[in-house]
């Protein structure tokens, strides 16, 4: 059965690798907002299925990127979701297994998040000229979005050309930074273009009306962004202070209020502080924020310093301050949450102080945009099933939500809910990114009609994105063959003893395997059937003969290494020699330098001894041939794991 061939690409490379996958899925509810690079914030259910959209992505080091995504539309319906509340008041709802990116670059399932978890943030702002800027979490610098998009479109030419080059927004919307909306021009040509265009367009009423709408929309967005911009608010505050100091407002307010009226106002405010708790808390917060802003003013600091020095000479005043501080701090320290926050802030402070960034920006400013935090996690049982939606991101495998956090991208294929159908409900053909799929046994009714059946998804003359490996630009997708085994993957054991899948369905006990050692945090997995493994073996032998792929390389090699033990009391040089002789590699995927110097690569190789053959292996990033698991090239994947029957089959070659 061949599926939609238009989605695949001609093969110009020799196939040298086979990757094993199994099915998986995690999605967001329809009203989830995604920030697009063209300036829009759009619901995920409003993305047109199959269309491409430019989104914000982030690599494991925190570098924010502009990357392409594909809308996958509705994938399934669920009646159980998780709601994540963030420290900015925003909430996100998704399936329990959707992965959220932590500030460390690792991922964590939504259902396993806890209050206080630190998430990788996306912070944006508008500069004084109206251009959007992004904060890069790796180096804490702000970069203009249109320049990142321009570099993506035009490469280093944008920065290395001897002439002064600028990026022109084709639709004149500075917030639309979609690469397709940017045109690289020489600065002089750009000025000339706008000059000539202005002369021509001001006689065109349609253009004038369009510019008015664009200007109104830009101003609306700009005002919303500026309202959150502390620098802009300080600018307005300084202006108002200047007018007060010049006496512009005295005749309106100050000079018209009598002492008697001032006393009445004072009494009414005191009553309001006592009786209106909501107002008092909000006012206290506003005063606190205002005070923080004032302390950024050097003149204000100087005045306060001088006043404090005068007061501090008074012994009675000093005693009052000491007593107040002692009582207040004692009361604060009795609060568990306060002690926890102090401890966490001190850890961050010392970590930050050691970095090169400490002399460049203040710790306070850095802390404001360091992360977003989880405030609350709620599992919600719904009365009815609701649809959930996916997008696939081609490079970073994650994308930013409008709430300002990064989440893992959804499935890199159109979810095939029933392998005996080749069409969606709307009549369009189903698509999948692997070359072959091997059917399995139903967990609901023991239906085995598709158990072990091999389905070829597209001809061998084509290739598709099936690995999702970061920063590889499809390099390994082109030279590899993907085989997907229908399987639910990791399972969790409920309090009642049932084994649950990521979509909250039950797997019968006879279809469950318990691993000797947990694999990526899970001890129980959906078991591969005998028919699946028999068909997989048959398919591997066929592909080996067809493309000359050595089935003994890859997983089988590393399965055989699992039992190796390095002799004791070896020098560093002898350890490096032993590791090289037994095929271990460094973090860079290459043999170790036998120089007797202990470094990162030697440490990595040592840590590889005794590890599961199905863990991440840096050899995969060098295109090492043979048979590998999806988990061999991706640290965030669970397919395939080292089940005993799978290991036995792989060792049979």
What key attributes describe this structure?
Homing Intron 3 (I-Ppo) Encoded Endonuclease, Chain A, six-stranded antiparallel β-sheet, disordered N terminus, Lysozyme-like, five-stranded mixed β-sheet, 5 domains, alpha+beta, Endonuclease - Pi-scei, Chain A, domain 1
Overview of the molecule:
The longest helix is centred in the first third of the chain and has 23 residues, at 205-227. The protein folds into 5 domains: 1-24 and 417-506 and 513-562 and 612-653, Lysozyme-like; 25-121 and 369-410, Hedgehog/Intein (Hint) domain (Endonuclease - Pi-scei, Chain A, domain 1); 124-227, Alpha-Beta Complex (Homing Intron 3 (I-Ppo) Encoded Endonuclease, Chain A), CATH 3.90.75; 314-368, no CATH class; 564-609, no CATH class. Mean pLDDT is 79; it is low at 1-9, 352-363 and 411-425. Helices cover 34% and strands 23% of the residues. Strands 3, 6, 7, 8, 11 and 17 form a 6-stranded antiparallel β-sheet that branches. 28% of the residues are buried. It is of the alpha+beta class. The protein starts with 8 loop residues before the first strand and ends with a helix. It contains 18 helices and 29 strands. α13 (530-547) runs parallel beside α18 (644-650).
